[in-house]
Amino acid sequence: MIDWILRTSLRHRVFVVAAAVLLTVLGTYRLGQMRVDVFPDLSAPRVTIVTEATGLAPTEVEQLITFPLETAVNGVAGTRRVRSASAAGISIVWVEFDWDTPGPLARQRVMERLQEAAAGLPPEADAPVLAPPSSVMGEIAFVALSSDDLDPMELRRIAERDVRRRLLAVHGVSQVVALGGFERQYQVILDPERLSRFDLTGAQVADAIEAGSANAPGGYIIEAGQESVVRVLGRASTEGEIGEIWIASRAGVPVRVQDVAEVRVGPAVRRGTGSYNGRPAIVLSIVRQPSADTLTTTALVDEALDELEPDLTARGVRLDRDLFRQSEFIETAVDNLLDVLRDGALLVAFILILFLWHPGATLVSVLALPLSLLSATLALDAFGLSLDTMTLGGLAIAIGELVDDAIIDV
User: Fold this and answer.
1) Pairing of strands 139-146, 226-232
2) Residue 97 — left, alpha, or beta (φ > 0 → left; ψ -120 to 50 → alpha)?
3) Per-residue DSSP letters for 322-358?
4) Which of 88, 266, 355, 364 has a Cα at 20 to 30 A from 232?
5) How far lies 11's CA from each of 19, 24, 74, in Å?
6) Alpha-carbon distance values, 160 to 168, 258, 283 (Å)
7) Hey, which residues does 231 pair with through a beta bridge?
8) 287: enclosing H helix or E strand
9) Which residues of 23-54 are buried (b: 16+ CB within 10 A; e: fewer)?
10) Residue 409: what pLDDT?
11) Where are the domain boundaries for CATH 3.30.70.1430 in the chain?
């Protein structure tokens, strides 16, 4: 069989050379189009349900929120496993589907069940939401923001308002999670004595703020053939406006929020912290979409950070990107493969020239190495596989076998 292949190849030299050139061009083109990652995507289609319930204990969260949601999604078609976690004020339910279930279809099925289950949740619970789609190895980078001049609350505001919003607009980014600092919020500190004096409760104050801080439509006014929109602007946006909200009347005198409480801007209760090089910092975790290429997405993230960095520096904010970068592992694996390919080609060339003194045989053996690798990448691409540390490691090991065969066959 081998003799027939050799004779046929020698009789059709032009065809063999043309096939090799075509294989080289096609393999090189497809190699640049293949998705590159750290590990192959081994995660089954999964939908994450997040429900916040401020003030509820873990036991109450599990009984009143987690269990009803688990019961609702257990019967979804294609469900493989349902897991959950309950903590103070938050419930997380993971619904895993069969491998052949499309991601959008899985999210649609879960959302249909959530609409039914949400009606039975306690009033303290927010509406359940679906977390953005992500994979097990979705975190591609950590970015740290720190400052010597800004307080943690202002630094967190910059991270959330400016940096996070810009990164979420990057193609391939699924989610950006901020850790550290303090979230800015309006706080209403009630005075029990003044509440008692006006015969009010904390619930009445909360209801008044919720009802009195909202915009409302007022319909339309048609005058002289011109239609105008009427709006009632009542949404409070400053401490003073919140303090002016009416609660009730006592002896014909209006009682406002500022009469029974102190309104101020302050930090929310801290949930987690962040640091960089032993100093407080805001750490942003950047998560890619399941189908996004890690190297391409990381490059786009770097471009976005390059745009933001001059403005951040002018405001006294330092931007550090070397906390964690998944792309570094991929680049190291690719560099290792190129080093092995280079060393193998040099070894084959040296041994064949040393013992055979035949440049033609040496050239054919050396060219067999990249052609074999390009053929392997075409096979990987045909089966929908990605280039990752596992496949690159396998190719690096295969080069050793190729070197051995090239020397022995010649």
Assistant:
1) unpaired
2) beta
3) EEEEHHHHHHHHHHHHHHHHHHHHHHHHHHHHHHH--
4) 266
5) 14, 22, 65
6) 11, 30, 11
7) 217
8) strand 282-288
9) eeeebeeebeebbbbbeebeeebbbbbebbbe
10) 59
11) 44-133
User: CA–CA separation, 381 vs 229, rounded Å?
Assistant: 58
Q: Where in the chain is the domain with CATH 1.20.1640.10?
A: 2-39+328-409
Residue 167's pLDDT band (cuts 50, 70, 90):
very high
In terms of C-beta distances under 8 Å and separation of at least 24 residues, what long-range contacts does 167-171 make, across chains too?
A: 167/284, 167/286, 167/301, 167/304, 167/305, 169/304, 170/297, 170/300, 170/301, 170/304, 171/292, 171/297, 171/300
Angle, CA 52 vertex, CA 48 and CA 58 arms, to 5°: 95
CATH class held by domain 185-267:
alpha beta
What pTM value is reported for the model?
A: 0.72
Partners of 350 in beta bridges: none
Superfamily of domain 2-39+328-409: Multidrug efflux transporter AcrB transmembrane domain (1.20.1640.10)
User: How many residues are present in the chain?
Assistant: 410
pLDDT at 410 over 60: no
> What is d(CA 226, CA 311) in angstroms, rounded to the nearest whole number?
45
- Where in the chain is CATH 3.30.2090.10? 185-267
Q: Cα dihedral sign for 9, 13, 15, 18?
A: positive
Q: What are phi and psi for residue 10, nearest 5 degrees? A: -70, -35
Q: What is the mean pLDDT of the chain?
A: 84
CA–CA distance, 41 with 5 (Å, rounded to integer): 39
If one counts every other C-beta atom within 10 angstroms of the C-beta of residue 396, the result is 18
Tell me which residue has tokens 């980014």.
Answer: 173
Q: For residues 68 and 11, is the Cβ–Cβ distance under 8 A?
A: no
The two tokens of residue 186 are 């309006």
Residues 6+ apart with CB under 8 A from 160: 178, 183
CATH superfamily of 44-133: Multidrug efflux transporter AcrB pore domain (3.30.70.1430)
- 38-47, 66-75, 322-331: lowest mean pLDDT where? 38-47
What is the Cα–Cα distance from 213 to 236, expressed in whole angstroms? 5
Q: How far, in Å, CA of 280 to CA of 274, rounded?
A: 6
Cα dihedral 388→394→399→405 (10° resolution)? -150
